[in-house]
Amino acid sequence: MTSLSASGVRVKSNIGVVHERLICYIRQIYEHQHNRLFAWGVSSCGSLVRVYLFGPDCALSTNDLDMKTSTGRKQFIGWLVNMCLGEDVRRGFIPSMRYVDDTAADGNDGYWELSVPTLDSNGVGTDTTTVYYSKQPSIVAGSVFGRHTRGFPASATLDNIEKPDVFVKVAWQYADRESGPTRKTDIEHLVDIREKYASTAPNGINIPHILAGETVTTVDRDGKRAHLMSDTVFEKDIATRYAVVGDTPKSADNGNSSNRFSSQPPPTFDLGSGTPVRSIDDIPRAHKLLSFRKANMIATQPLCEPLDSVQNPDELIIVLADAMRAHQWMRTECNLLHRDISSNNIMVGRRRTHDGGSEVYGMLIDLDYAINPSHRRLSRPERTGTLPFMSILNLEAHPDQQTELDDFESLLYVLCFQATFGINNDDAKTLKQARKAMDLSLLKIRKWQGWQEGKTMASIANNKRGHMVNIDTFEVNIAIHFPVPDSDDSGLPDYYDLQLLACDLYHALFANPHVDPCCRGAHKTSPNTQRAPIDSFVGRDSRLRAQFRNLSLVKVDPLVERAKDSAKNTIIDSFITAMEENAAEARHRIAKSVSMNGLAMLSSP
């Protein structure tokens, strides 16, 4: 029973404590078992045992199985037998990923063997696979729920495993269960871009080039090959034989969260608070709660590094600007809206220049949530994105259509997190050490994170609104915590230029002087209707006076008003201009630094 991966918990106390510990174990399983697609768990409170299945969106559990009764023991033993007889995929492992432990053979560490479905000449997946080799992932699945995205620097040959040049991504992706127009996958989007748009892309647009990819296939007990989808895994068998439908966590520890926050305390919620499924006839009701997803693998080039590989603030500014330039090119030329701007989806690349030097660039990846806005209405309740970086209206599940402004707002939040906690590992360690004696509650940005006790999407959105009311509240609550040392010998990184960029982006999004005042700020306000104008306009007509007073109670949301076309286009221009101007200044500073270093080397004896 090692396939359970120590997810069993024995606690003779409150079931809530059991769930907290269980979630901690499940999180560690996903973080360290890189071929884990879903996870099983067992809890024991006295003689009562429950079995849990953690899917990508929610958790299912058995009712209490009483080990004092023959019925309870029979049910539990039946589950154990099913686990022993089930295929690896039903125990939660991805069949196309295999870890090869060759430590005994040559003394080196093992490696991952990744079998990615091959594309034909038309960009359609085939039954054959291309094998890539990787030492370890650069992106791990650090959350209990979500897509469980992993990213592997890989090579097409085992001999070149130490010099990877391919990026392999594995993730659960949302799909449409019903027939009709389907949601395109990351793979399909990249094939379209490669075939239709890439040849006309201007310089400075960095988009991944797809090499291989498709939904993972598996072979069932009858020898039939099928795509690995949530319906294939979570069908009416051992996965849901006995079930209590658990609530999807309101604190939204949903996937693709930044690795930096993956080790934070988990959300707490009652897995057993859902609707009880008392017989197998109720299983379809449980089955409908599970989102329909595909287990996709994709291989792309060029190979880039995570966002926290930047060496200084100027590189971060350039990378973010490049990513948003690609974002706007996809929106205007390919009619795609990304909808998941996060620290995991902006990568850092480096390439040689014509003069023999090197330059940094940014690449926007992961089109799993991208969609053509003209094909369907982007209803907010889907709440796409990564929690700390989601826009306010997205967190609030506002019914209006998502726009570029939601992604721009997410980019601002990415910048704020990077500048608060450190743009790379060295800076992060330095800042953590410097803040040892600090009351961490002073870091208001922590209120944007879902693992904080009592935080829901609505409360996180409310916190963000409070921090974005005006430039003063933004600076006092957020930007003030970007380190700007008073002296060079402080040992702290200097993020002054990141402060300037953050304030420029804030002005473009929340305090743009070129749009109507009703589009500025973040708090809902009443229309500026005074009593005197009402009196002069409606006279003594009490009915009309009452109607005007009711109008004055209507709240105007600046975040909704700014999304209207006239204001939206102005804000888009301002935001992109701010990004490009700051990136140009960053490039100038880097060139100046390189020139000065060159002169210093020439003058040295």
Q: Could you characterize what this model shows?
A:
Helix content is 35%, strand content 16%. The protein is α+β, with helices and mostly antiparallel strands and 605 residues long. Residues 1-13, 236-287 and 529-540 have low confidence and may be disordered.
Number of strands: 18
What is the CA-CA span between the terminal residues?
A: 67 Å
Q: What fraction of residues sit in β-strands?
A: 15-25%
Radius of gyration: 26 Å
Global geometry: globular
* Average pLDDT metric: 78
Percentage of residues assigned to helices: 25-40%
Number of helical regions: 17
Q: What structural class results from the helix and strand content?
A: alpha+beta
Q: pLDDT under 50 segments (min length 5)?
A: 1-13, 236-287, 529-540
Q: How is the main sheet built?
A: 7 strands, mixed
Describe this protein with a few key phrases.
disordered N terminus; 18 strands; alpha+beta; 17 helices; 4-stranded antiparallel sheet
